[in-house]
Amino acid sequence: MSDQEMLRRIEEKVAAGERVTAEEGLFLDERADLFTLGRLANQIRERKNGNWAFYNTNIHLNPTNVCVYRCRFCAFRADLRAEKAYVFSDDMLRERVLEGRSQGATEIHVVGGLHHQKKFDWYVNVVRVLHETCPEIHIKAWTGVEIGWFAYLTKKPYEWVLKELIDAGLGSLPGGGAEIFDQQVREQICEHKADAKQWLDIHRTAHQLGLRSNATMLYGHVEQARHRIDHLCQLRQLQDETGGFQTFIPLAFHPDNTKLSDIRKPSGTMDLRMVALSRIMLDNFDHIKAYWIMLGEKIAQVALSFGADDLDGTVVHELIYHDAGAETPEGLTVEALHRMIREAGRTPVERDTLYRRVIREGAHWSTAEPVLASLAS
Ligand code: V47
After folding, report:
1. Angle, in degrees to the nearest 10, between helices 196-208 and 144-154
2. Residue 128's domain is classified under what CATH number?
3. What is the pLDDT of residues 228-248, one digit of tens each?
């Protein structure tokens, strides 16, 4: 089949709302031009999310940077006795979540290192302290890799670990730790860490317990197109099974201060291609997030026309990308997010973590119906 015939077949499928195969995805990744990808992705984006562009009011917390793993892409981690090593106390946790409340945050995003000396109880306590201090703030905490570590520490099944965290106040799981599922790539960038099967099993278990979660893919390092397509197809398969993923976030590799610092940061074109490709492949995900912190405000804004319908949030106190050289500010005001979205020709909608519309008066807020349900009616 010629490239033109292949493209026509994919265009027809996208127009009919049909699924693109792995082979077609590989063709798109390797051969389609940027505008074609963007046009196809935008068609799907507008069908699913109309003209809306979502954001949330959130705050980040990385309770420790001390980590037993030495992922080669990570600039955030620290050795146990390193000068930059830190661990939050309970008072610091309370202070951070109260700061979130004073800014009207609906969500606290919590991920960190796997500390050599901290037991599972310490991580449960982080969730409990945050929840008891501000029960109205949704706690999106601990990636699949961290949940896998807790299961290793306690020698208990994922289900038990997740139930303990839910009892303490956990609301959902963020999408980190997925990186690239291919084992050979994992061995090059994050040796020893939870593998694809574990990551997927953990999210499956979370979904079975009624938790929603996100998924990510780290691109622009040593992976190739076939690894990206395999990654997206594995996520799509689990989503067919559980329907528990809310959002997919393609994460651009930032090389500064990492063991892979000889690799160049992905270009703006690559970033837009990855947003569009994920929107086309993940036909069963409602949302694709253009995480402005790592894409930069300008590319994130353009991504709203290349398949993305969500910008993440105000994101106060982000460290993981800033340690790796992100040049974006450490947070954006709601006014700045609104301006970015309106300039892109979209309509801003504040959502909570579970995509319910937020009705806000300053720092006070309440939630209404899930946004997509109201779009359908
Ligand atoms: O798993 C770490 C990535 C992830 C670097 O669920 C890096 O809403 C690029 O998961 N360059 C953690 N990427 C962040 C994450 C996330 C972010 C935003 C929203 C959500 C969500 C989740 O960050 C890690 C890893 O893939 N990462 N270091 C780096 N140097």
Report:
1. 90
2. 3.20.20.70
3. 999 999 999 999 999 999 999
